[in-house]
């Protein structure tokens, strides 16, 4: 199975295998949206913990 779809090939990277497994592009798109939202929350959490000058869950890189 060729994982390089036209829209992914334009960006020059492979499609995430999870979305490639979907037969319908709409299902893949909504799953991608969920993933993006989850990452967004993670980034906000990291930003908050960075603002408190503490590594997130004890394993972040601490800036001095």
From TrEMBL:
Region annotation Disordered: where it falls in the sequence: 1-36, 45-64
Official protein name in the record: Uncharacterized protein
Organism in which the protein naturally occurs: marine metagenome
High-level lineage: unclassified sequences, metagenomes, ecological metagenomes
């Amino acid at each position: 199975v060729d994982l390089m779809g036209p829209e992914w090939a334009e960006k020059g990277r492979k499609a995430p295998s999870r979305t490639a497994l979907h037969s319908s592009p709409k299902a893949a798109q909504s799953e991608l949206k969920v993933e993006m939202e989850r990452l967004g929350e993670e980034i906000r959490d990291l930003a908050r913990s960075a603002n408190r000058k503490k590594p997130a869950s004890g394993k972040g890189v601490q800036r001095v």
